[in-house]
Amino acid sequence: MNKQDLVASVAEKADIPKTKAEAAVNAVIDAIKTSLKKGDDVRLVGFGTFSVAKRAATTGRNPRTGEPIKIPASKQPKFKAGKELKEAVNK
Length: 91
Known about the structure:
Blueprint: H1 3-14, H2 18-38, E1 42-44, E2 48-55, E3 58-61, E4 68-71, E5 74-81, H3 83-89
């Protein structure tokens, strides 16, 4: 399912026009991005938790030359599925 499929599904289930469904989906995505950017977790009970994990700087190797390269520290978005979502997928 891609974003347009999701918008169509939301529009159908909520019985609203696709334009309003797209605005709602975009608003949810933007709210999650904004919260994660601030360092906050987003917990959707029964669905899951979005969070940010910090990755330390490491040293890797260039596969062509074998030279060591520095990989800078970064923040990575993470998602942990909730109990209800896990159960729904495993039925």
